[in-house]
Amino acid sequence: MHRREFFHTTAGALAAAGAQAQTPQPAASRKANLKVGTQHGDSDDILKAMAALGVNHICGHLPSAKMDENWSVESLTRRRERVESFGLKLEAVPLPLSSAYITRSENPNIVLGKSPERDREIDNICQMIRNASQAGIRLLKYNMSILGVVRTESTTGRGGATYSTFNYEKAANRDTPTEAGLVSAEQSWERIGYFVKRVMPVAEEHKVRLACHPHDPAMPEPQGFRGVHRVLGSVDGLKRFIELSPSPSHGLNFCQGTVSEMLKKPGEEIYDAIRYFGSRGRIFNVHFRNIKGGFLNFQETFPDNGDVDFIRAIRTYKEVGYDGLLMPDHVPQIAGDTGGRQAFAYCFGYIQALIQMVNQEG
User: Fold this and answer.
1) What letter would DSSP give residue 333?
2) Are strands 290-294 and 297-301 parallel, antiparallel or unpaired?
């Protein structure tokens, strides 16, 4: 996309969000320190575009799927300094524990619980944590996923945009076990707990925060999905997860969209979830996205077109003192919008306007 188009789209987004924020609200007690962020990566083209849009906080792309030169202190330092040369800050990078389906996972034995292979993989993760800290990168995000991100056939939304959709009743092969076989809730908790117990002392020693993404989407219990029980697919599961360690390095990549997917009435219930985890200092990063629907049947929408009130949501993040990144994610697809650039530009502008609004309320 040409830079002119970026500015044009973002200006429209700012106007749209500002128009929704005209209703007088009680003033908050302090200025928020919220930041719009992105996980588009850190290529030169991306960094130039983000600098122009005022998206000054970056989650870089995965350095490497294995412990190699790309995870060295020197390589990570060069990456951070290159991002800074554009006037931006490299806030985070992902660990090679992605949301991919298990056969495409970078370190599968950690979630499969297979020893001694998982110990070797965890040893590498621990070294990545040490190196990231020495390079000045203090936030790493990760997933603990076997199923990956499960979706069914897309549906049509506002203006003909394509919305990523999940409808449990239409999900194929839901009773067919994955290559991981049957994985009970107890087995899932053992594997997650084993990982947390191993890595958290290293992260805390080196002052690195580890942000875990919830399971996307939630699945019904007691049946699970394809033989797997998604223990990080409920608010109660996430509460149990943060209790696995008292370390200030242990927290969530709080995907507001995914947490909304766990709820029967996300437009009413998501704010209490933000308060619970935010007031305990366990929200390290936010994927700020919206949905229509709820548990087992939802569409992923634009921020102003779903069931969650984003004005109320951002006020709740401010209320609990959250001061990190708000990242758009999983944007709808617009015809002709290669790579979702127009859709993301709209979301960046919308979030920027919300941050300006909530700051003025202080």
Assistant:
1) B
2) antiparallel
- Secondary structure tally for the chain: helices H, strands E: 11, 12
CATH topology assigned to domain 3-360:
TIM Barrel (3.20.20)
Please name the helix (run of DSSP H) or strand (run of DSSP E) that holds residue 131, with its range, or none.
helix 117-134
Q: Are 29 and 61 in contact (CB under 8 A)?
A: no
Residues ≥6 apart with Cβ < 8 Å to 35: 56, 57, 323, 324, 325, 326, 355
Task: Tell me the per-residue pLDDT of 293-332, one tens digit each, with 9 for 90 and over.
Answer: 999 999 999 999 999 999 999 999 999 999 999 999 999 9
DSSP annotation of 57: E
Separation CA 347–CA 271 (nearest Å) = 20
| Centroid of chain to Cα 131 | 23
Q: Using the predicted structure, report yes or no on whether residue 284 has a pLDDT greater than 70.
A: yes
- The whole-angstrom separation of Cα 219 and Cα 229 is 8
What values do phi and psi take at 223, rounded to 5? -80, -25
What are the tokens at 293?
A: 């629907």
Ranges of each domain in the chain? 3-360
